[in-house]
Known about the structure:
Blueprint: E1 2-7, E2 10-15, H1 22-33, H2 37-42, E3 45-51, E4 54-55, E5 72-79, E6 85-89, E7 95-98, H3 109-120, E8 127-130, E9 136-137, E10 153-158, H4 163-171, H5 174-180, E11 185-189, E12 195-198, H6 209-220, E13 227-230, E14 236-237, E15 253-258, H7 263-271, H8 274-280, H9 285-302, H10 305-313, H11 343-349, H12 353-362, H13 377-383, H14 387-397, E16 400-402, E17 408-410, H15 411-432, H16 469-485, H17 497-539, H18 548-559, E18 580-581, E19 584-585, H19 586-600, H20 606-617, H21 625-651
Amino acid sequence: xxxxxxxxxxxxxxxxxxxxxxxxxxxxxxxxxxxxxxxxxxxxxxxxxxxxxxxxxxxxxxxxxxxxxxxxxxxxxxxxxxxxxxxxxxxxxxxxxxxxxxxxxxxxxxxxxxxxxxxxxxxxxxxxxxxxxxxxxxxxxxxxxxxxxxxxxxxxxxxxxxxxxxxxxxxxxxxxxxxxxxxxxxxxxxxxxxxxxxxxxxxxxxxxxxxxxxxxxxxxxxxxxxxxxxxxxxxxxxxxxxxxxxxxxxxxxxxxxxxxxxxxxxxxxxxxxxxxxxxxxxxxxxxxxxxxxxxxxxxxxxxxxxxxxxxxxxxxxxxxxxxxxxxxxxxxxxxxxxxxxxxxxxxxxxxxxxxxxxxxxxxxxxxxxxxxxxxxxxxxxxxxxxxxxxxxxxxxxxxxxxxxxxxxxxxxxxxxxxxxxxxxxxxxxxxxxxxxxxxxxxxxxxxxxxxxxxxxxxxxxxxxxxxxxxxxxxxxxxxxxxxxxxxxxxxxxxxxxxxxxxxxxxxxxxxxxxxxxxxxxxxxxxxxxxxxxxxxxxxxxxxxxxxxxxxxxxxxxxxxxxxxxxxxxxxxxxxxxxxxxxxxxxxxxxxxxxxxxxxxxxxxxxxxxxxxxxxxxxxxxxxxxxxxxxxxxxxxxxxxxxxxxxxxxxxx
Length: 652
């Protein structure tokens, strides 16, 4: 491979054979430039080869780095500065070199610990410094008190069992890191069957359930009014109680249960499938309008602009609190404070600028809406440091609304006038009907509604158990069949006592025979119905293909935080199409190839090899992220090909 080298204004042409290491290339360059060994010894200089912002290691194979022919590399002579002190880290087995001006006789250990923290990236509270013979070194002492001299090595030791956790945190592997960190509490969602892990500062003895519900709402994206929290044995947990009142301890799991029959609706809203969400909304008008509020809140949390636009067209407002289900509106005065949160507040808090722009363009007065803490969207953006939303809201907050060509109002004044007009329209609708008001239907914000029942916490049977719609339909169908199979008795009303006496035993016997025959027929029908129901239950429900599983995995991969060098590991069990190559299925070829690679590469798995290659490629700072990925691919594939050629040469 032909590359070019730039050294102090000179341009060299270098022919690099495949498999040559960087150290061998340095020797070739040294001979080409005529650099004597005395220059290294007397002037204490070293030869350094750089590419894309990275100094190439001596043991790296040049052809494995993915450097294309014709590339120009930098060749430099740098002064060799010997470290004053070495620090060997126990978690990574790497050695940190301190080149700073350290005086062994006067340097205290607190300064050395500060330097070690800056070099390693670890906080000073999780490690200690020891000598090579195991003596712990304390901050108030100096290096010479422990017999440490220039060029010596000391040890950096962290907490036992923290090595894997620290290495994953340094490399930024978020999913693997979360497996290492033990959550304080788990919340299993009934709608998605996923488990939410709470890593926040939760004290089990003092944490009230209203705080836990707030965290569950922020993690799941659901408003607090559509779910309840229960223990694993089914006991409902109320906001005024603490976790320890229900026997919940650190590491335990509690359940998040939503309204029965809402699972499909919530999953589709979370994934932003607008047509499917609209098709799921139905039933009574007031319940359907509440579902639209919930869908708009979820769209604001996850940033689904199309779903939010569809809900706005249905008449839902972004400055209306999501509130509670019609069956629970009687308790809204004493409900959770986050039930007063509007979709515009949620979009601001989550930094969803696209949805926030949509809300402002639809109705600019939503900027003056206040949540349960009496905060406007601008206050929320500033307090949570949501920079993009705060900048947008600042440009709109003090804007003027043009009424006509010569008259304009401030936003606050215009908002108050608009609210007053809406109340006047609603009163006109109630008093005079639709002929005297521009409103076509009333906004239901007035409290409990007739015909929707009352749910009393702790007494009424809660319809919030998270049952899917298919199970509810099956139960309803079975109840109807059971009602139909129940025996029906005919009640005969006789007007006078004479008719009773006149009928005598004949009518009584006839009625008894009629009722007996009808009850026998109904009993037979009930027996047949029970047999059919028993047969259906024995056969079990029809298996349907889980259409949501792959989409849920995709949304989970998109929402993961941090830069992840490797993709998330999929746990999907659906069968995939397979292909044949020379009479063999592809999975047989791939599995056998990976086994051979692991055998001849020292037993490392494919994931471990990828991590090693990505760690090396990450040193090329001047390359973009995709360029670093290509370097990692080249490192892995070229090293494997070279090993295969070597093995083939030995066989010949």
